[in-house]
Amino acid sequence: MEQSQVLSASLVLSALSDGYEKTFLLPEFQRVRRELQRSVMGFCRSAVCVLILLMYLHSAVVEEAPDEKTVRVFPNDSALLPCSDISCNETVLWVNSSSVVAWCDPSSCHWTEGYQMSHSHYLKGNFSLNITAVNPSNTGSYTCRCEHTSIQEVLLQIINTSTVKVEFDGTAVLPCSVNCSGLAKWTTQTDLLAECDQTSCRSVKEGYQMIHDQYLQGDPSLIITEADFSKKGWYTCNCDDTHLCLDRLQINPLKTQVQIKPGESLLLELDVLDPVEVIYSETGAANQTSHQFCTVDERSSQVTPQHTLRTSLELTGLNESDSGVYTIRDIKNKENIHIYNVTIQGDNPDGEKGFWLPMWGFWSILGTYFLLFVVLVAVIVCMCQKNKYLETQGHRPNEEDSQNTEQEPLATTDELVDTDSSPTANSDETGSGRSEQCIPLCCLSENTSIS
């Protein structure tokens, strides 16, 4: 009877073990089962065995459902999905949407494109999954399994990012179209800038603000006024402790035209605190090339913070061959800060560059020549009229008339008028009409007078 009770208890234990095998941790449960079987077969009665069994089942370590972890990364960045500090001597698999993306066993590791697992880490109990470049198709829920047992759940998300460019001293709006029922706040790596809740908005730092009506409508965007190079960089919007948006503010580079003479110095303003490089590009060259010829890694310790942004780099002893484009570039962020278009030109003592005439000078010279041409035409017309008048009055110059002219004085204007009005005028001899007897003013000699 005792043996049958022991056998019955053993069967109950086996049945229960088969039913709970998937719920309890296998190594611990197997150890418990072996201890119970040895005890039962030795001296226990059936009632005592059942009681001991229930006590062990209650105190056994139960496998809890794995907590889900969230990993948020930027687009195209790498992501590490954690699964470590767990004992598993069998095959470890990573599953995403019912598809196995990577797996490791005691001999080797395998993975699909874009995923990686380290076999050396697997042997040490670290089963983490590395995603080399995250894109939207990689997002979702991932499960780390030891054979058919879930070990870790990981949710992979991509942080919304955008880049906003603005002119120097302009106004920028960093977008974030995500609903937030809690406290929405914008921060940099070191500072809290502005925040909004269901009742109001508050600007923590001058030059940054949020609009409460927009926040209530699911648009907690940040407005930045008078954006300069000290405000460029990354900005994060959080809703309580959850990242909503990550925006990058860029300032368009300043552009300056500079014209100096050979031998003079060129001052290049350093508008940022980050290390910068100066890149020179020659203008007008057949094969235009750019090269770095100067870097500024840090400011002098004697320069106070409020004057740091007003420091400059001086280039001395420049000549005409140094003309070109000088670009101040932020080394860390790979952004152009200031572009100088430099022209170095002397006084041209040798006339090597030719004579340059402004447009107003050209039109002045052209007008002068035109005026001279008009005067010349007027003189020619006047002379022709004078000769024609003399021919009409019968005073064409000849040898006889020239002798009479030397002996007789010139007739006055009154005499000429009387002669013209006489019926015995020389109109018959010359065949000219009255219309040709008028004397042009330009044809009167110095001794001619008009009454």
Question: Which labels suit this protein?
Answer:
single chain, 451 residues, Immunoglobulin-like, six-stranded mixed sheet, 25 strands, 31% strand, elongated, disordered C terminus
What Rg is obtained from the alpha carbons, in whole angstroms? 52 Å
Largest sheet: 6 strands, mixed
Q: What value does the average pLDDT take?
A: 76
Count up the helices: 10
Task: Quote the beta fraction.
Answer: 25-35%
Number of strands: 25
- Fraction of residues in H or I helices: 25-40%
State the strand order across the main sheet: 1-9-8-3-4-5
Report on the architecture of this protein.
The chain has 451 residues and is of the alpha+beta class. Among the domains are: 2-59; 68-158, Immunoglobulin-like (Sandwich); 182-251, no CATH class; 254-344, Immunoglobulins (Immunoglobulin-like, Sandwich), CATH 2.60.40.10. It is built from 10 helices and 25 strands. It has helices at 2-20, 26-42, 46-59, 119-123, 212-216, 305-308, 359-392, 399-407, 413-421, 427-430, and strands at 68-73, 79-81, 92-96, 99-104, 109-111, 115-116, 129-131, 140-146, 149-158, 160-166, 170-174, 184-187, 192-196, 201-203, 208-209, 222-227, 233-239, 242-251, 254-260, 266-269, 276-282, 290-296, 312-315, 324-330, 335-344. Strands 1-9-8-3-4-5 form a 6-stranded mixed sheet, with no helix packed on it. Strands 10-18-17-12-13-14 form a 6-stranded mixed sheet, with no helix packed on it. Helix 1 (2-20) runs antiparallel to helix 2, helix 1 (2-20) packs parallel to helix 3 (46-59) and helix 2 packs antiparallel against helix 3 (46-59). It is elongated and about 165 Å long. The N and C termini lie far apart (175 Å).
